[in-house]
Amino acid sequence: MSDSVFPAGNLMKGKRGLVMGVANKNSIAWGIAQQLAAQGAELAFSYQGEELEKRVRPLVESLPGEPFMVTADVTDDASMDACFEALKKKWGKMDFLVHAIAFAGKDELQGSFTHNTTREGFKRAMDVSAFSFVDAAKRASAMMPSREEGGGAMISMTYLGSERVVPNYNVMGVAKAALEASTRYIARDLGPLGIRVNAISAGPMRTLAMAGISGGRTLMKTGKDWSMLKEDTRMEGVAGAALYLLSDLGHSCTGEVLHVDAGFHAVGVPDIGEEG
């Protein structure tokens, strides 16, 4: 999706923010970053490990301005301390946070949730996919402007498997449900500070995350065939929703889970034609 055209403008001019979770050019986080950059945002990107840095750095360097990268292991407090200390040293303040990080073992993303989920796998999925947003939100909020100065905004990325049973999504569905609940509680806590906190529930897209789920291709086709718009979820739509929630256009919107999935989430029974 790196060849997508994202509308340019000045909605994010003068705003700075951290994007967590870019893995390659097909990442939803990268699409969001492109849209924010096109609207004038100054960006920082977190990454974990040399291999990820090698994939992400060329993308970051293709953006206008002076985006920069900072290492962060969301499962390690010392690493997160160093990450946000680097942001504070570089910027002093930040205006927004994009959290698009999730992980579950591949063996646990297939077959039976009951029989394939291990204690360690459950803890790891919850730590990386849900608690990491709580932790990042706490750190980022301490760097955001006061309510009088305009406050700030945060988004996390979720999926319909948090609300309904999706084959093979398993422990990730449970982790995403925890992420959505966390988003609402964080929104409650940070609201008085003028910080808005929301989640985007994107439909199936061709990302590394989708590739890790058994039956991902079938999920993509079903999402298109059963959706109201009869189309795949488009990166432009997800990035546009993120722009709305993170910019001043999103005033008065917080604690929300915004579905961007061509209407798939609202379908109770798919239209499969009349019998006979």
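the 2nd protein, sequnce then structure:
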Amino acid sequence: MIYPDWKSLALGTTITSPGNASELKTGDWRTELPILDEEKCVKCGLCAIYCPEFCIHQDEDGFFRADLYYCKGCGICANECPKKALTMELEEK
């Protein structure tokens, strides 16, 4: 056999747990970021529920905002917002 058995290989960059953004701080490779329109937002929290990285939290005014240090810019929050209060915009670095 030329190649080792796959079971004997080291894990390398395999992600073995969901919601890993708090460990990996993945926001630095994002290309788009969620922008909140407070006038459209009804503070329902669906964006936070659907966020695969659990990086959206309620602020002191009741609005849900993404922690951009962890946000990957996937756009799921904007897609799930029933009032279209979130839009994804190209991030200028």
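The chain has three helices and four strands. The longest strand covers residues 32-36.
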